[in-house]
């Protein structure tokens, strides 16, 4: 079963947080249209869409990835590092509890954003979870996540993240586990022995749709070519209005597998 959580953008999207880049005006109507296209791309790739109830007072709620870490039958509800985003988690918890997931929570003083969590299941079935320690996620949050995931056999590895908002703003993984990133934004590429540098910052962000297909932004055409030369099929979507808010393709959804 391939299901994916998404959350419709609200009316205050343009007021979303911006930390590492200059603020530029967001066209909310265009952003709505881009979100519909993003969801349509997932649907046409065979994913069942599950909408989390909108959180209209939270400008950044569309970045649903930050509110949860899902592994197996467990949903660890995050405690976002930015106070403005803390109310977003209730809707995500309700949606996942409704789908039958076991619920655990990151508690104070821990903070953790789902965008800091990169998971990979190796060919031998071992799960590695790299977690960015930086602006939004603290050591207590990582310790709690590790304790929640340990019974599921996952190994949690802390990765200092200072140059971008979240670990997954810097690196993501291709279907074969190769970790890709735009080197100037990666604190220590040597963390991953098979690190693959990509020529564009948005090229660092992929959503794995199946063993040979990735979803990525149209704003990284040279990286797209690089991936296609490696034999990957690429589905590209324009998410310019979300990129102005330091969002990327990964943060607009949470894939639920199995
Ligand atoms: N996982 C992600 O990359 N999330 C992007 C969140 C962007 C939002 N404007 C924020 O600063 O929280």
TrEMBL record:
Source superkingdom: Bacteria
Gene3D superfamilies: L-arginine/glycine Amidinotransferase, Chain A
Gene Ontology biological process terms from the UniProt entry: arginine metabolic process; citrulline metabolic process; positive regulation of nitric oxide biosynthetic process
The keyword Flavoprotein belongs to this UniProt entry's keyword annotation: no
Keywords recorded for this protein, A-Z: Hydrolase
UniProt-recorded Gene Ontology molecular function terms: amino acid binding; dimethylargininase activity
Active site: 166, 251
Similarity section: Belongs to the DDAH family.
NCBIfam families xrefs: DiMthArgaseDdahStm
PANTHER family: DIMETHYLARGININASE, DIMETHYLARGININE DIMETHYLAMINOHYDROLASE
Protein name: N(G),N(G)-dimethylarginine dimethylaminohydrolase
Organismal lineage: Bacteria, Bacillati, Actinomycetota, Actinomycetes, Propionibacteriales
């Amino acid at each position: 079963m391939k299901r994916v959580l998404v959350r419709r953008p609200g009316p205050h999207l343009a007021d979303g947080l911006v930390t590492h880049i200059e603020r530029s005006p967001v066209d909310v109507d265009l952003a709505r249209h881009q979100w519909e296209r993003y969801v349509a791309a997932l649907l046409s790739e065979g994913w069942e869409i599950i909408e989390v109830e909108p959180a209209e007072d939270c400008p950044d709620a569309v970045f649903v990835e930050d509110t949860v870490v899902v592994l197996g039958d467990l949903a660890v509800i995050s405690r976002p590092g930015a106070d403005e985003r803390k109310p977003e988690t209730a809707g995500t918890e309700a949606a996942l509890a409704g789908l039958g997931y076991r619920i655990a929570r990151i508690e104070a003083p821990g903070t953790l954003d789902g965008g800091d969590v990169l998971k990979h299941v190796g060919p031998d079935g071992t799960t590695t979870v790299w977690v960015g320690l930086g602006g939004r996620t603290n050591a207590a949050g990582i310790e709690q996540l590790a304790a929640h995931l340990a019974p599921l056999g996952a190994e949690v590895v802390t990765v200092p993240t200072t140059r971008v908002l979240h670990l997954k703003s810097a690196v993501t993984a291709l279907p074969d586990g190769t970790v890709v990133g735009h080197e100037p934004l990666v604190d220590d590429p040597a963390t991953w022995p098979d690190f693959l540098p990509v020529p564009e910052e948005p090229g660092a962000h992929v959503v794995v749709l199946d063993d040979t297909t990735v979803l990525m932004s149209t704003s990284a055409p040279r990286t797209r070519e690089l991936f296609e030369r490696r034999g990957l099929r690429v589905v590209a979507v324009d998410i310019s209005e979300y990129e102005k808010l330091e969002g990327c393709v990964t943060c607009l959804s949470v894939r639920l597998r199995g």
